[in-house]
Amino acid sequence: MSLEIEVDPGEVGFDAARLNRIDQHFARYVESGKLPGWLVLVARQGKIAHLSTHGMRDIADDAPVRTDTLFRVFSMTKPVTSVAIMMLYEQGAFELTDPVSDFIPSFADLRVYTGGSARAHQTRPATEQMRIWHLLTHTAGLTYAFQYLHPVDELYRRAGFEFGMADDLDLAGCCDEWAGMPLLFDPGTAWNYSVATDVLGRIVEIVSGQTLDEFFRTRIFEPLGMIDTGFAVDRANADRLATLYVADALGRAHPHPKQAELRAMAFDQPKALSGGGGLFSSAHDYHRFTQLLLRKGELDGTRLLGSRTVRYMTRNHLPGGADLETLALGAFSEAANAGKGFGLGFSVVDDPAAAKVLSSPGEFAWGGLASTAFWVDPAEDLTVLFLTQLMPSSTHPIRPQLHQLVYQSLVD
Length: 412
Prior knowledge:
Elements: H1 16-31, E1 37-44, E2 47-58, E3 63-64, E4 70-72, H2 78-90, E5 111-116, E6 121-125, H3 132-137, H4 151-158, H5 171-179, H6 196-208, H7 212-224, E7 245-247, E8 253-255, H8 259-265, E9 280-282, H9 283-294, E10 298-299, E11 302-303, H10 307-313, H11 324-327, E12 340-342, E13 347-349, H12 352-355, E14 364-367, E15 373-377, E16 382-387, E17 390-391, H13 398-407
Parallel strand pairs: 7-17
Antiparallel strand pairs: 1-2, 1-16, 2-3, 4-9, 5-6, 7-8, 10-11, 12-13, 13-14, 14-15, 15-16
Protein name: CubicO group peptidase (Beta-lactamase class C family)
Pfam family, one: Beta-lactamase
């Protein structure tokens, strides 16, 4: 689908020369070898005011980033899964307080890590059941293997979950394996980035009677006109797929060491459908998704969620109104956690002053492992999308710098 600037920046409160500072700043990332290439999209009042690309989607092939380039959005899959589960919630399929074990019985007898190493650890019974709202808020006690912060992370790695899913398991099998792992803490008592959204994806399947890809396609992507988004790339679009890069010790981009294998895998449906990180998408498609969120669940006459549901999802749900700096066990991106809470699938800015980054109260956002990011600012009627392909996302301060550059360009 075509993507183009839809409004003169000045008509929606931007200074065009100040907007160009975004391109000038991130062009230096490409010229210095820190990023292979990127796309940035800024929209206000539902119209694209700034759209630019720079650098390469594949350096070796001298193939530039284009507005139709396909990216691995990794954890920007999570908000899609959160929308899916809340669509089912609106149908009365469950309550947020329902135990996960009502849907996946293997989560019935959970144990919490209390000490020892990954090979010789101690546990005790969990004092609270894991509930759906714990999954949505990442307070379930689950983890990710790639974090290297806790002995339980190592248990996940030893079970084959280095980057989310084990090669030989489907989604149901993955969930049963995770249910057998110790929790890092009792559900609801702390925050830890984790496979929780993948478990939500399995609940979507169980409740809806559809596979996760079918639900996404029929209930979200087709209604929104998101024709390029899915768990695999159509081979006809192979030349649009961006190469995945990793950062060296100096922060310079190099092709992923398993790039050939990753590229081949991109065209086949995975055995385990990851609602936490499995989607490929384009700027056109993800922009459509952010507009749905900005418009509180409706876009171009298609309503997926009620307006009150979206408002409820995008408020801070952390216990006691805590921020992530207080409750999170570890960092999960280059962005600071102070002043930010977490809703039902999104980070939420409560206090921009505490965050020390230009933003608005009520802004909600998330990003992906390959340095992709988006945010929605209802107070400014603003959405921003940044797409690139560099792992990990903590390599460079892209997200806070993008905030600085976008908000300084607003002059109305």
